[in-house]
């Protein structure tokens, strides 16, 4: 069995290249170059022999190693920041050895191995430590590498988005005090928005059931009416995403206030619940959140109140 991420990358690369797959190898086939890349891959996050950028970044972002409680006064943060910056300097120097943005002349296994850590740190560090990696003038090679990775179609297919990652840090890792994620500008009617609408419509029954189960709704409406109101709100979100007229006539006027309350809470919950790439692509999740935020805000305008 193979379970270490870097070993999996190597095994998959060799398996694909030994078959009938086309495309350029992401690992040198033989000789000193192959040995060097494999050695770097093995030592990538070692504090002694590698860049250690992954562990240093996570520890600085969280304020302590995983399993440890961060000091309440944050007295250790300056030292953690310096350790992280030392790792960034090493990464910057390594990336400047090649003319392009990647570790080697072309995209390869080292880029793949480092991407998950840097993707998460690029999302979390601005929120939790006011530390920017994307577009950094202090570390231009790192910024160029992030931009190059962000632009790759395969990366965009599996990438998460900042909203998903920040909520992950808060809920799973227990991190607190970060700036709340904000919605990116809406671009309704485009490919990403249509993807979000299609996924929402296809899974609307499961989404509605999840909202009823986990959103903590408090309403005078029956469960049956509540589910119908939630379904109507999902239809409104889908209509907004694809740029079509919205129909709110399904909700009886006598339920106006209660329905508006349910819609506001349900869509606020869905906005935080959607996860990329679990539910949809990162760009689609961004559009879904934006549509949910708008519809949640205008619920009382749309349905009225008693």
TrEMBL record:
InterPro entries, per the entry: Glutathione-S-Trfase_C_sf, GST_Omega/HSP26
GO cellular component: cytoplasm
UniProt protein name: GST C-terminal domain-containing protein
């Amino acid at each position: 069995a193979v379970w270490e991420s870097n070993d999996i990358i190597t095994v998959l690369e060799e398996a694909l290249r030994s078959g009938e797959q086309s495309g350029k190898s992401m690992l040198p086939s033989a000789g000193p170059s192959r040995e060097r890349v494999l050695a770097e891959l093995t030592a990538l996050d070692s504090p002694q022999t590698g860049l250690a950028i992954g562990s240093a970044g996570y520890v600085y972002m969280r304020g302590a190693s995983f399993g440890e409680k961060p000091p309440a006064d944050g007295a250790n943060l300056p030292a953690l920041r310096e350790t992280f910056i030392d790792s960034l300097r090493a990464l910057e120097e390594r990336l400047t050895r090649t003319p392009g943005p990647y570790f080697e002349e072309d995209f390869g296994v080292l880029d793949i191995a480092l991407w998950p850590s840097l993707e998460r740190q690029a999302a979390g560090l601005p929120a939790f430590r006011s530390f920017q990696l994307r577009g950094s003038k202090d570390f231009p090679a790192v910024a160029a590498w992030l931009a190059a990775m962000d632009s790759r179609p395969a990366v965009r297919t599996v990438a998460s988005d900042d909203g998903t990652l920040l909520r992950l840090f808060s809920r799973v890792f227990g991190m607190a005090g970060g700036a709340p994620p904000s919605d990116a500008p809406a671009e309704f009617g485009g490919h990403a928005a249509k993807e979000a609408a299609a996924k929402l419509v296809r899974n609307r029954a499961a989404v509605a059931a999840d909202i009823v189960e986990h959103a903590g709704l408090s309403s005078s409406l029956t469960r049956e009416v509540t589910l119908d109101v939630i379904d109507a709100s999902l239809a409104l979100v889908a209509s907004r995403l694809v740029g079509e007229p919205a129909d709110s006539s399904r909700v009886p006027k006598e339920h106006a206030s209660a329905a508006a309350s349910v819609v506001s809470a349900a869509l606020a919950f869905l906005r935080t619940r959607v996860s990329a790439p679990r539910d949809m692509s990162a760009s689609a999740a961004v559009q879904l959140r934006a549509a949910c935020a708008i519809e949640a805000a205008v619920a009382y305008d749309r349905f009225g109140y008693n």
